[in-house]
Amino acid sequence: MERPSFYLTTPIYYVNSVPHLGTAYTTVAADALARYRRMTGYDVHFLTGLDEHGQKVAQAAEQNGMTPQDWVDTIAPKFLEAWKLLDITNDDFIRTTEPRHEAGAQQFLQVLKDRGDLYQGHYEGWYCLPDETFYTEDQLGENSTCPQCGRDVQFVKEDNWFFRLSAYQDRLLAYYEEHPDFIQPDTRRNEVISFVSGGLKDLSVSRTTFTWGIPLPFAPEHVMYVWFDALINYITAVGFGADGTPTFSGPLAHYWPAQYHFVGKDIIRFHCTIWPAMLMAAGIPLPEKVFAHGFLLTKGEKMSKSTGNAVTPASLVERFGVDAYRYYFMRDVQFGTDGSVSVESMVQRYNADLANDWGNLVSRLFNMTEKYCGGVVPAVPVPADEDQDILRIAAGLPDAYELRMQSLDYAGALEAAWELIKRTNRYIEDSAPWNLAKADETRGRLEAVIYTALESVRIAALFVAPVMPNTSREVWRRLGLGDIHDVTDLAAAAVWGGLPAGSKVEKGEALFPRIYEDAE
Ligand SMILES: [Zn+2]
To answer: What's the gap in Å between 127 CA and the centre of ligand 1?
Structure first.
């Protein structure tokens, strides 16, 4: 039987920046969902990549004395390195300078032109170069600056090609109405609906004042507007236009429409108005969901390169480890809203949840297994009354976790896993194996308690794995089990009793050694 496909994307990141906490946040979240969907039997296709065109890139290249292509070629490896460091399992990495994208993007523009949605016109207006975004006079912010970033805008006057975006206003509003899940969360959906209800203007989609971009196939003196170019990556990456025709064969037919576009809330309008209108114009189905997450804030400031914040993903991974890094951002910030992050709260979260709860459970339990059971998993017991609560939580975990992941509530999903972890810690306290070990007549109960706790740890590791892949794999390895990442039927793997009696358990080092803030 063919597995259902699950295509998810991050935005393609702007090549003039380096990977920072914000881009890492989106990418880790997408990776956790990709891993989870692989564990639940989907044929996952996880795409990320780079947005490499535009005037700003050309300028940066010039400042660095390089050609634009050489310039972007020096940046791309930094992103690949960062995603490797964060254990990102993307299936593809698209760069908009690749021939497969350029050919597909040209095909796409040709389709729009053939269907009558592109026309030649004259553009006069304001342009924010850092954001590569056009504004009309009345959209400008205070002192005639960019309403998005507050920087100076420049007056632009050009003969351009235009996309008939205004013609899609009613169809877009009808689509939002008929597909209430299309834009998430609801605050963003309301924002987009009110924006579109206010009226859409046709969009200039070409430039003639610089050359670093994809030439329009029917007007090669024009290069494509960088946002238009970038959005098309979601279909060129799965083969749109690859064979020289805008067909729906091969991987495109298999993976499209995408289940999710993950985006930051600052680019929601591009993804929820321009992109769906482009797809409608081309006669291509729309993605199922666009999910906009919030900003990471440090002391109320948006954490970005421009605020000069020196904390990088690499520096935090070095200090906390990759799993703890991933855990912190998925657990401490509710996905979809802004969240404050700090090294202090990361230390607290690490010590409380990872060192004390999860790490401590594994280490004391595996030690006791060695001490009381010779490091061997005891026989599968008949559950006693005292064991029922653990069995109940474990049995409910697959549904509880799934429910939360369906709304990308990572914090809630992890909390569900933690309910089992915390309950198992309490179970060990209440059962006191160290007392049961003192007499022969309680030997049976001792073994039952050890088995129950070990089996609970085996199951918990499954649900922790999408966010913390390395430590979960290590827990399974120490339990003498196979690679946890081979699991493709999570519900079946989580059925109670899966831990075979007789398996050899290895104690190992502490998974999350306590961090003392004073030591820094
Ligand atoms: Zn701006």
So the answer is: 8
- DSSP for 156-191 reads EEEEEEEE-GGGGHHHHHHHHHH-TTSEESHHHHHH
Task: Kindly report, residue by residue over 370-418, the tens digit of the pLDDT.
Answer: 999 999 999 999 999 999 999 999 999 999 999 999 999 999 999 999 9
Amino acid at residue number 388: Q
For residue 457, report the distance from its CA to the centre of ligand 1, in Å: 49
Cα(185) to centroid(ligand 1), Å = 24
The matching CATH number, chosen from 1.10.540.10, 3.90.1070.20, 1.20.1600.10, 1.10.730.10, for 342-519 is 1.10.730.10
Structure-token pair, residue 24: 């890492």
The rounded Å distance from CA 301 to ligand 1 centre is 17
Question: What pTM was estimated for this model as a whole?
Answer: 0.94
Contact (Cβ atoms closer than 8 angstroms) between residue 191 and residue 210? no
Identity of the residue numbered 361: L
The number of beta carbons lying within 10 Å of the beta carbon of residue 458 is 22
**Which strands make up the sheet holding 296-298, listed edge to edge?**
301-302, 296-298, 339-340
